[in-house]
Amino acid sequence: MADDHRNAHTRLSRNAIASVVGQLIYLVTRVGLPPFILLHVSLQDYSIWATCFLVLGYIGMSTFGIAGVYIRYSAEYYAHGRLDDIGRMMGAGIWLTLALGCLILGTLWVSMPWLYAWFHVDPGMQETMRLLVLGVVGAMLLELLIPYGYVMGGIHRNAENAVISLICSTLEAVLIVVFLLQGWGLVGMMAAYVLRAVFALTLTLTWFHRLLPGFRIHLWGLGKAQWRPFLEYGGVMQANGLLSVFLNTSERALAGYVTHHPGAVGLLDISQKFPMMATQLFNSATNSLLSAITHLHTLGEREELVRLYLRSSRYLNALNGLALGFMAPFATVLITAWMGQSVPVADAATLLLYAAVGFHIHALTAPVTSYFQAINSPARTFWAFIVPQIVLLAVGLAWMKWRGETGLLALAGTIMLTRIGSSLGVIVYANAQLGIGQFRFFREVAPIGALPYLVGYLASRAVSSRPELAGLGRWEAFGMLVLFGVAYGAVTLGLVFALLARPDERRVVHTALARLGQMLRIGRRGSDSPGAAAPSGFSRWPVPVATFGVFTGLGLLYSLVLPGGLLASLFAPALMPTQAWMSGLAVLGVGLAAGFGGRWADRVGPRPVLFAASLLFLAALLSMLLGAHLQVKNLVLSGYGMAGGLGLGFGYVATMPALMQVFPARRGMMAGLALAGLGSGILSAGPLADALPKLGGNPEPLGVAETAFALGSLGLVLLLAGCLAMRLSPSDGKPAPAREWRSPRFYLLWPMFFLSAATGIGLSRLAVPILQDMSDAAGTGTFVAILGLADVGGRLIGGWASDRFGRQPVCTGVFLGGGALCMALPFVGLGADLAVFVVCCAGAVGLLGGGIATLPAYAADLFGTSRTGRVHGSLLTAWAVAAVAVPPLVCGLETWLTGLGLAEVHVRFVLLWMASGLLLVGFFCNLLIGQAKGAGAS
């Protein structure tokens, strides 16, 4: 019996977590769709789409009894091992669904004119609405006709259902975007929904027969025992479902009729989106509650059932309070950040506030209804919950009519009060049925959900007291939302833990933190042990993919702070020293973070360092957004300049140790791939900035701060994705002595890195002005793009060549070949041969890029992989010094040589010859360094 308890709780926890995670990812994909949809369809058309799903909700509840029978009785039959009874029940359900589906579709076809009149649909959109309604309802009935998914929920396979739902919902979101961009409008959205249903059905069929091989559905020879659950239990569930969906959507069902405004349903749908998403997210955990309570009730374990009921109510209240306690006070900021000015913000914010409070209290009835269904008494839900809510709603509507109120806000407020009153009533009734004292229930459940509202209200008062934060734009509101959301979450969780957490809950938190620390320590010992064997099933291929994504994100983020980048446009041209200082601060941050970050990555692996880099970039983006809004130059300068530089340094050195470790025979190629990702991110920043308005369907260009924030957010997403995907394999068995990296070879490798970086930076600054004298502006832009591509290609080819021919020969070719090309460039420039000049410049940049890509693998060969982070971080200071020192040095030399009487073009030629001399010095350093014994790449 104890094993049954543990198995039930284990399945419940697993299914609840999977359901919540799957629902979270699904809802995240849905957050971005309404703003994108409203760029391609009008609010009135979107109201028609929302109306279709309102109708779908009612139709779905008309089949709710069938789905409830599948889940409830599958759980009971499965607990007793009666799989054949499940097959017979499914056969009866299929026949019933087939008959009911034909009746529903026929009724819909006939009643469409009445729906047009009720929702005030324009005549030009009536045929479109007919197609949409019939399409989405048909797709829903198809899923119900083959009910494997519902049975999987009944046999405690909600985790598998969550995976299928996640895959298919992501496919639907992608198809919606594609079809809208193709101009298909609402019909394309309907097609995406239908394709999602077909794909989900295919996956469910495949997965179910893998879980229960040999399972059969019995369509013939059915008796009264198979039909009775649908007629008795399912009939009551059917009535409850129809009335519940009306009460849950009563605002939208009555909005068009009461207000006579065709856009009212769409405005309600948008305003209620976030509160409804939050309650759906956390209530998805209760999808597993019905089968678990049924299991315990079948075994006669009432005390365990009561504990499960109280615990689920407490945690459900806490989670909903944490989310909705922030949404309600910050409703205006949330609507502004999400929808901008495409909807009436003040009305939408008030509607969101009403929805948050009402849906929160209503969400607490989920354990109650699950209990009534589990004990085979769904009629109690009808008499104790639905009937009182109908009475309260009728009283509220009568009061509105008596007062002459026809506004949307009055309707939403009235329905919020009826929802709260009926929810509290059924909770009190269920507590009495379970023998739970009311004071005990509200003492354990209520405070943990009310405290977040107090914290959120105080935070919103702090915001509203600052006049300079009023009138925020869309991106500024988003930045403030993230900033205050993080602070709110930290403060609320801390107060809940300190004031309201029970001893057993605190022990769970302490145990989880201790386990996390133990995992980090074990991972560190395992990765540092020379003889550690690779864990079974370890795959090294996610590491280079994650690393390329990380470096691409770093390139996007770094491109913002480069001279001539987007952030430079925030300042007037007269403030060029400010732009230079911001770029210099970023490079200084790279140098400071690289050394410490490399040591940290060697100790704990790449993921904590990458997460720290993500937090730094988040702080940098928020400070940039806030500084641009408040017109505070120093906030952008210090915020993005310093915090972004530190994040760049951490991100740069975090992934290189893992990359060198998992591919010991392809270190050069892997390093070249990573650094090519950095160059690709920088190159793609410009085209992405131009494409953002077109992607959103907005012909007007975005502001500088908004574009920079959007690109930075994309880079941050890539950084976080790489952080989650990165895994550290065991060491390759060649640890270095603790102080070997301080040997003379390191002090020869450092100037090699410095000279390569300095020459590349100087070449870029000198070659572009020379080309400007030889071609027009369009030719110059093409030339810069060619140089960028040559740099990316050179890193890939140089890394591959160093694996094939060795590090020292490749570095020799880089320094000699680069020096020769820099020496030849002045003569080519004097000949005014544009094509040859471009080829020589591209060759020199490609060689220097290949040299920089070779050096991390060079260092790993010399010093081993156990301290690659420390060594590479120290070497990265050479690039930081070059980036800070070379631009002012080039400017100073140009001024000095011009003062000696040289022409401007001749000054650049002299500097190119100096660059070739620097590369010659690097060549001699490479000759002196020598390869360590056995440190070949092959």
Automatic annotation (TrEMBL):
Subcellular localization(s) per the UniProt record: Cell membrane
Gene3D superfamilies recorded: MFS general substrate transporter like domains (1.20.1250.20)
Transmembrane segments: 12-28, 48-71, 92-119, 131-151, 163-184, 190-208, 315-339, 351-370, 382-402, 408-429, 441-460, 480-501, 545-572, 578-597, 609-628, 640-659, 671-689, 709-726, 747-771, 777-798, 810-828, 834-859, 871-890, 910-929
Signal peptide boundaries: none
GO molecular function, one term: transmembrane transporter activity
This protein's record includes keyword Cell membrane: yes
GO cellular component, one term: plasma membrane
Keywords: Cell membrane, Membrane, Transmembrane, Transmembrane helix
Coiled coil location: none
InterPro entries (alphabetical): MFS, MFS_trans_sf, Poly_Biosynth_Transport
Domain of life: Bacteria
Membrane topology of this protein: Multi-pass membrane protein
Entries under Pfam families matching the protein: MFS_1 (PF07690)
Protein name: Putative transporter
